[in-house]
Specification:
The protein is globular, with a radius of gyration of 17 Å. With 245 residues, the protein is α/β, with parallel strands linked by helices. The protein has helices at residues 3-8, 22-26, 35-49, 67-72, 77-101, 123-131, 149-160, 193-199, 206-214, 229-234, and strands at 15-20, 54-59, 106-110, 119-120, 135-139, 164-169, 174-175, 187-188, 190-192, 219-223, 241-244.
Length: 245
């Protein structure tokens, strides 16, 4: 990137929290992690990191184990949710490895103590890591059952003073229906928090959206599978769907 281009391209956000689904890491595989996809996501994160943006991430565990599905299959809900939290730690370590390979300093902090693998989540330490230009990956959800990684992402974003939640998905925004199944579904360019809650749109779960609304934290839902989209969002391009007050 030339010096002139760097001067022209200025990020509109200083600190972001990137919310990834566990399924984002599996690519076209039916289960688990595709290392090539993890590397591609890491490269996109590096692009915005090099703009000087503070980056934090939260990853789901649905590519390995989803607590709610385990409960529906007959498992005790609390146990199932804790297993799901362990899956998020595994995914966080995968992303950490992919980032470190391309020289992006990274720390994983977990809400569940796994001291041989991660740091415990401590807000002040997380803030210090970002001040030292490290990408912080928050694992283990909130550390409590019955809460999704969406809620964990918003909680951490509020705690670290993030400017925006970047919700990375496989579609280019929020629609009136499932665009894969319903060809008449229409895309929203902008939405209000209350609209999302009233229409029960699948942006994030209701607890997460309510927490965003209470703290005036915008959400941008966009397509992760198109290379360079994280950078486009950071530079202020109007892609995806903006959820705000």
């Amino acid at each position: 990137m030339t010096a002139d281009k760097t001067l022209k391209e200025k990020p509109v956000y200083k600190r972001v929290l990137l919310k990834l689904s566990g399924e984002a890491l599996q690519g076209d595989l039916g289960y688990g992690v595709d290392p090539k996809v993890a590397s591609s996501i890491a490269e996109q994160i590096k692009e915005i990191y090099e703009f000087g943006v503070d980056v934090a991430c939260v990853i789901g565990g649905g590519n390995i184990f989803r607590g709610l599905q385990g409960a529906e299959a007959g498992m005790e809900r609390t146990t199932a949710d804790y297993i799901g939290m362990l899956a998020t730690i595994m995914n966080s370590m995968v992303l950490q490895e992919a980032l470190e390979k391309i020289d992006v300093p990274t720390r994983v902090q977990s809400a569940i103590d796994v001291n041989k693998l991660t740091e415990p989540y401590i807000r002040r330490r997380a803030m210090r890591h970002m001040e030292k230009r490290r990408v912080v990956i928050f694992a283990g959800g909130t550390g409590n059952p019955y809460f999704t990684t969406d809620t964990a992402a918003v909680l951490r974003a509020v705690e670290i003073g993030a400017d925006v939640i970047l919700k990375a998905t496989k579609v280019d925004g929020v629609y009136t229906g499932d665009p894969v199944k319903d060809k008449t579904a229409k895309k929203f360019d902008k939405l209000k928090y209350l609209e999302v809650l009233k229409r029960q749109l699948r942006v994030m779960d209701a607890t997460a959206v309510s927490l965003c609304m209470e703290n005036d934290l915008p959400i941008i839902v966009f397509n992760l599978t198109r290379a360079g989209n994280i950078k486009r969002v950071i530079l202020g391009e109007k892609i995806g769907t903006l959820v705000t007050a």
